[in-house]
Amino acid sequence: MTIQATIEAKLTAILEPEVLDIINETHMHNVPADAESHFKVVAVSKAFEGKMLIARHRMINEALAKELAGGIHALSLHTMTPDEYFEKAGKVSDSPQCLGKKLQ
Q1: How far is 59 from 81, CA to CA, in rounded Å?
Q2: HSE-CB of 9 using CA atoms within 13 angstroms
Q3: CATH assignment of the domain containing 24
Q4: DSSP SS3 for 27
């Protein structure tokens, strides 16, 4: 199973999300072509209702502790309740460009 698929399975199990978008952004960084190390996660779930941002991120970090200790180098989290997602019209910020030189 790929790291991306593992992230999806684990977060689906704990969040029962209305929206879960896992974007592999590894290609934007200075890593080998076959690496899976940089991800953006957009998660929309009722499980986030009443929770501060740090608590939402902790939920995800705890679920992905094994992956964060091993294969994942960077994880950008965009966690919203369904109402917050609707207010933002589903838009999240773009990830910054990698400052390192990309491998050929």
Answers
A1: 14
A2: 7
A3: 3.30.300.90
A4: helix
